[in-house]
Amino acid sequence: MSIGIDKINFYVPKYYVDMAKLAEARQVDPNKFLIGIGQTQMAVSPVSQDIVSMGANAAKDIITEDDKKHIGMVIVATESAIDNAKAAAVQIHNLLDIQPFARCFEMKEACYAATPAIQLAKDYLEKRPNEKVLVIASDTARYGIQSGGEPTQGAGAVAMVISHNPSILELNDDAVAYTEDVYDFWRPTGHKYPLVAGALSKDAYIKSFQESWGEYARREGKSLSDFESLCFHVPFTKMGKKALDSIINDADETTQERLTAGYEDAVYYNRYVGNIYTGSLYLSLISLLENRDLKAGQTIGLFSYGSGSVGEFFSATLVDGFENHLDKEGHKALLNHREEVSVETYEAYFNRFDELEFDHVAEKSEDDKDIFYLESIEEDIRQYHRPE
Ligand code: COA
Fold first, then answer.
1. Which segments constitute the Hydroxymethylglutaryl-coenzyme A synthase C-terminal domain (predicted)?
2. Ligand 1 centroid vs 35 CA: distance in angstroms?
3. Residue 25 lies in domain
4. pTM higher than 0.90 for the full model?
């Protein structure tokens, strides 16, 4: 049975800060951010873009009227919840006008949750040939101004339609997950920002990758040469590279060169967006699909990681004509048309986001009429603008 990613799209807010300028402001050598961490720009979120509006914006350009009739489940993966009870999926379901007889809920396990959402969708669809599932990964990665994690912030969402006979990637029946209780990054309820053990989080990520990949290779009888490319969770572009480098010597020279070059194409978009937590792996997947010369039938390996921690290695195979279902021009335009803000302005946006203080004059632009955004909060109920 062929089930997989039929459509995929991302949305990022319209502002970014230049990492060299952020480094200067923090009196750090810019090469630490540009090379050591591997980030060039970092998406900055206005208060008017929360996980609901970003998720709806990522989905709106790929969902057709026919999809809306057949989506039986909407899952939002996030670690930036705006409510401890009500799921963002319910609001997104409403904003997108999806048929009412649908299951809508939120999933959480740090940056990992979109992956079990996809696997759940796959299992769900096996018994439902006429349905589709909308999976959305939406987050605002926030560590705090002048915190250790500050250069690894970002914001954005990825939306995916999972269906039978997918147009882009078929999910294979081979996922291996690895769980280990570790306090590398966590956010106890009531905390605005996560608690992070930076060095431990890098080690825990690499260990989780080695364990899940090692078990996957053993169970499936596969080696690195079986993959055209590998995609990783990308909290910052250097992270996945460290994981890849930790096993690359097991491969022959041709495979090493191919996987290393593929990695660079796979993190191209992430380098200009920063960390989007749950969506990072899938932003990287879009980057790979749109920036690398790939062919139908090739297999991509994916490593998902959520601190805490759960890692998962799985694979997907490109289907005929997949290149006709991507939007490279649209994505380049989205990234290139963003507005650079100064470090001072980024800090002001950051603080307004925390306080939910709207400044529609400073933050509004003509383009906003075409997107979803958070317009106001009245009696703790969020009101969203719908595209005209
Ligand atoms: N030129 C080039 N590279 C430089 C440099 C310079 N001038 N100065 C430092 N670097 C390199 C360091 O050698 C290091 O590379 P390495 O990891 O290969 O050794 C890298 O830049 C980062 O330096 P480090 O001292 O580790 O930075 P840090 O203590 O500020 O922490 C993070 C970096 C990523 C741990 C921190 O930003 C963080 O906690 N982020 C959030 C958690 C996270 O994303 N974890 C990942 C797993 S989910």
1. 177-251, 256-383
2. 10
3. 3-168+325-385
4. yes
